[in-house]
Amino acid sequence: MKHHFYLLLIVVFMSTLQAQTIALNSGWNLIGLNQELTLLELEAQMEVDNLNIIQGESTIFNRSYVENNLTYLNDFIKFEMGKGYWINVNHSVTLTFEPKTLYGLQTTRLKEGWNLISPLQPLSLEEIKNQLGEEQILVIQNGSKTYQKAYVDKNLSFLNDFTAFELGDGYWVKVASDVNLANHFIEESFLDSIFTQFNVGSGGSNAFDFSSTLSTTPIWLNSIDLIMDSNIENNDYYKNITNFNGTAFDELQQYLVNGKFIMLWMTKNWKESWFSILKIQEAMDEGYIPVFIYWYFGDELFDSMPTAEEIDAYSVNNQKLADFLKQLNGKKFLIMEPEFNGNTALSFDENQVEFASILSKAIDIVKQENNNTFFSLCMTDLGRRGVNIIQSDCGYEHCALGDQHTWAKSDLIYETLSDQIDFVSFQEMVGEFSRDPFNSGGWSTPNPKAYTNEEIGIDYLAQRISNFSAFLNDRYQKPVFLPYMTIPTATWQDTNQNNVIENSEINSSGWNDKAEQTYKNLSEMKEELQNNGLFGFAPMALFDDPKHDLGGYQYFMQNEYHFGIIETSAVGGVDSYYNGDITFK
């Protein structure tokens, strides 16, 4: 299923080095897994026709219902923590999943009578008895082993062969009255837990403006609903989106729910009304981490350093941000000034010292009221990329694999802020055409440049990301994050050689294969990436935005409209809003 590859990548990256497996035999299996694996993910791991039935205590999926147009009878969506399930398959298959990391006290509620559960941790029969009381436990039964109090009462204990709960198994448990089974887990520091895992993010915007069938006013689809609303295809408000494909949105949601980071951009003129504190908090309560990408100075840094008045305005904005963040209860990330390392900030040591001072004060302002916020500074990869550029200061066989000389130019800023940042970040944005970096043209009169694969080094991008991660991790001794990356999928061929991009010369899917191959390479390198200090990444855009940076600098020119991993029928540079007929690239 090639067109699902980008989103399947989210599932692949969620399977870390600690992935576990469950072997399913042909026929019936009683199992449980401590991960919210969805139906879509199950079918991705086995042939669709191999899965016949999933039966929980109160939910079901039956393949025959689908085949007989009775899909409405199916209500199974995903495995739930602590619950057991019967699953029937045609032939043997192995499920792979990453169990959720649990901390502190977690309880399994058992109601009087029968309960179909999955243990959160291994517990011996004696430990269970000590917790619940021997008189409470009437029956414990899995697919092959049993414990029955009646056997004990009748001096037939030799018939009992159940000795302990085992992870991955499901159990029928009958108790005499309502009771809670306690599971105690060792607390782990937040930083240790998040920086030693590998997770992915999504979002890119607090909300997406889709065209409406009701009026010219757009319908705003909240990015957190896109992740957490398991019934999004039936949302009465979102159904009014033009060409709304509920099935595709449901499928997208089932992928995105497995991420960890919710990416939220805050530009210079951000307003609190753009964000829903309530929805962000709901996501945080479910274990998601909001990542605020604070892009205040933005492309203006390419032209000049901030003036005294601009620095004062920035400080006011910092306080506004601090007041906003303190309304959120829990851990959050703040990425300071992505793409800061343009020519101006790095041109002289004095500029680096000045810019580090500006950021240092900003971090202090925010941190003073937000001790549970973790900070980073994000550079852009401005290094040489040509396969045929072979220079020793790049540090690799050729410069498509990396450019350590350019990467090190931000040293003074990073070293100055070392005690104030918790991790380092970088971004990757690579397109087949863009402004000419050596002759970019004016703000509204750009000079375009198209690259060959060898000039831009696209076939080596995944390895370059790994090398960049290792470089930053080794140099600054901090975890590394890739908060956004994009591979714009359009290509341009200047057929009339007038050095002007015309719509007829653009192939909107010309680089789909390059983007797909890069993400595939990254998925196959996840162990290497994690060993090199990278703890996560996120695509910059879920959807192609038909007006991305319209009126702005638009470094990637018309390719700005092809940043997403999902496309719609909206026309870049023409339409104002997304359409609901989303298609996975």
Please outline what is shown here.
This protein is of the alpha/beta class. It contains 18 helices and 28 strands.
User: What is the arithmetic mean of pLDDT?
Assistant: 92
In spatial order, strands of the major sheet run: 13-16-17-18-19-20-23-26
Count of distinct strands: 28
Radius of gyration from the alpha-carbon trace, in angstroms = 27 Å
> What share of the residues lie within helices?
25-40%
Largest sheet: 8 strands, parallel, barrel
Describe the overall structure.
There is one protein chain. By secondary structure, this protein is of the alpha/beta class. The strands form 9 sheets. It has an 8-stranded parallel beta barrel with strand order 13-16-17-18-19-20-23-26, surrounded by 4 helices. Helix 1 packs parallel to helix 17. It is globular. The mean pLDDT is 92.
How does the SSE layout of this entry go?
Elements lengths: L4 H10 L5 E5 L2 E5 L7 H7 L5 E5 L4 E3 H5 L17 E5 L3 E5 L6 E7 L2 E5 L7 H8 L4 E5 L4 E3 H5 L17 E5 L3 E7 L4 H6 L3 E5 L3 E4 L8 E4 H6 L17 H11 L4 E7 L9 H9 L3 E7 L12 H18 L6 E5 L6 H4 L2 H20 L4 E8 L23 H4 L3 H6 L6 E7 L3 E3 L12 E3 L2 H4 L4 H16 L3 E7 L4 E2 L13 E2 L4 H13 L1 H6 L2 E6 L26 E2 L15 E2 L1
Parallel strand pairs: 13-16, 13-26, 16-17, 17-18, 18-19, 19-20, 20-23, 23-26
Antiparallel strand pairs: 1-6, 2-5, 3-4, 3-5, 7-12, 8-11, 9-10, 9-11, 14-15, 21-22, 24-25, 27-28
